[in-house]
Design brief:
Blueprint (H helix, E strand, L loop, with lengths): L2 E6 L4 H5 L12 H13 L7 E5 L2 H11 L6 E4 L30 H18 L4 E6 L1 H12 L14 E5 L1
Parallel strand pairs: 1-4, 2-3, 2-4
Antiparallel strand pairs: 1-5
Helix pairs in contact: 2-3, 4-5
């Protein structure tokens, strides 16, 4: 059995400014770095065998901060990337409320497929281990949706640097 600590990255400059980040790199702000340090301290005594992150910088930086007390490297995977928001990327989120979604937004079916592949990858690569994985708000919801067999709308939103535990 693999234990997965699923984490959302710390707060970013664009989170604070309400900008749709999508698959842009993003960067943590001071609050986000503090959130990651606090989570790292809370998990300092936990046995974590591997640290995995989305390959987007905001997640990598969060994961590196959390992993630091454990002295372990961070492995990255594109499977944990945030949803590709296409033409909405870089836009002010409140302005998008009544807009028609562009055709280039990553579909929920594609995200579910990515979530299934991520869960299989973690299970196969890290059997019977404890893995901490840092992803993003939407992909983490989809991973939990697939895991629990529930619609995405029934999965509570994760706050920055929040952790949820799944047993695979």
């Amino acid at each position: 059995m693999t234990t997965l600590y699923l984490v959302r990255h710390g707060e970013t400059v664009d989170n604070r400014a309400q900008i749709m980040q999508g698959q842009t790199q993003g960067r943590l702000n001071d609050t986000g770095r503090a959130q990651a340090r606090e989570l790292g301290e809370r998990l300092r005594e936990e046995r974590i065998d591997a640290f995995v992150s989305s390959d987007l910088y905001r997640s990598v930086e969060t994961c590196e901060i959390i992993a630091r007390p454990h002295g372990k490297p961070v492995v990255t995977t594109a499977l944990l990337r945030e949803r590709d928001w296409g033409g909405f990327t870089g836009r002010f989120i409140p302005d998008l409320k009544d807009e028609v979604w562009p055709a280039d937004i990553e579909s929920m079916d594609a995200m579910r497929d990515r979530a299934r592949r991520f869960l299989a990858w973690v299970s196969e690569r890290y059997p019977d281990r404890t893995v901490l994985a840092v992803g993003h708000g939407i992909i983490n919801k989809v991973i939990q949706s697939v895991y629990h067999g529930k619609p995405v709308q029934e999965i509570a939103r994760m706050t920055n640097a929040e952790v949820r535990v799944l047993t695979l």
